[in-house]
């Protein structure tokens, strides 16, 4: 794999650390700024909302420009946002810094995914995407404990100084290691928005919402499940979350490789496995050994869908891969918020701390149905040969997309 992908992965790590690293520092931030913990929580939820909006809006603003130039500009925005947070004299300034940093999140992964696929052979595209997203999954593992530890030892601002430094290193890496990649000839906002007229693009978006809603809906309240249902001590929870993160990291990389081999079959299999894992997890949550196994599998299968979902939406929008890629990132973040909200609703309704696992299983089942409907529609529209091409591998799918797939999806 090209070394430039390491720079993209480091950017993914920094962005992931920005999103998750603040979670364990909210009490200190709330006390420092004299706000309630619920108000401090807006620094997290406001970030996620901005990601969903910025993924589409900022991508629309940069579709005409060289992709390397866009990545450099986004990383400058990322550095600025975290620098504002590091020196913020009050809560509103801090919130503004979070919004600025979040604006680049979706667009960075959207543009970065396109750049990653251009840096490798066609049969390595999903693997390249998974490597870039690997930085994000590492941040999922290390973000909360690392950010919390640094903040507790040196003050919460030190976490944002560290993230700013990661942004500077990433910026240098992109400038030195990532090749210049021009926007598609004639690329403009109208052409990019054409992607949203395609049925298969909306299938990918909906599957992304449901898949990540399933994972995050279960994971958001997993600490309560581990302590109140499985009987683990609170001290064991961080280590158990690391187990989940290790599974997520491995699953992301493996998911990229199998998506390169067989895009559609791999996604169908992973969505079916996700529903099965969540169901078994819910049924065996009182058993500690089964719970540890469930955590590993949930991370591996859930995050294993990410590279394939990213590549699928790009495959069906070959004339607008950047907008489609960013739309997928937005969809995943909408899924995060929706799954967490729905899991909270079931707990508040008195269904217990296992209920988010059942919510996740239901959302995964819904995502599988949507994916199967989309696959059947593709088969009917393009015929068996085109379907086989798309299913056989990402490179062939992208090659065929302008003629056969696009016609079936419009």
What is the topological layout?
Layout: H1 4-20, H2 26-33, H3 37-40, H4 42-62, H5 67-87, H6 91-118, H7 125-154, H8 156-177, H9 189-193, H10 199-219, H11 222-229, H12 237-261, H13 263-284, H14 288-315, H15 321-348, H16 355-392, H17 394-409
Protein name: MFS transporter
Membrane topology: Multi-pass membrane protein
Subcellular location: Cell membrane
- % residues in beta strands: under 5%
Uncertain stretches = 384-410
Radius of gyration: 20 Å
Oligomer: single chain
- How far from one another are the termini? 34 Å
Number of helices: 17
Q: What's the number of domains?
A: 2
Sheet of most strands: none
CATH second-level architecture of the largest domain: Up-down Bundle
What characteristic shape results from the CA principal axes?
globular
Describe this entry's structure for a reader.
It is a single chain. The protein is mostly helical and 410 residues long. The protein has 2 domains: 1-183, MFS general substrate transporter like domains (Growth Hormone, Chain: A), CATH 1.20.1250; 188-410, MFS general substrate transporter like domains (Growth Hormone, Chain: A, Up-down Bundle), CATH 1.20.1250. The chain has 17 helices and no strands. It has helices spanning 4-20, 26-33, 37-40, 42-62, 67-87, 91-118, 125-154, 156-177, 189-193, 199-219, 222-229, 237-261, 263-284, 288-315, 321-348, 355-392, 394-409. Helix 13 runs antiparallel to helix 16 (355-392). The longest helix has 38 residues, at 355-392. It is globular and about 55 Å long. The model is unreliable at 384-410 (pLDDT under 50).
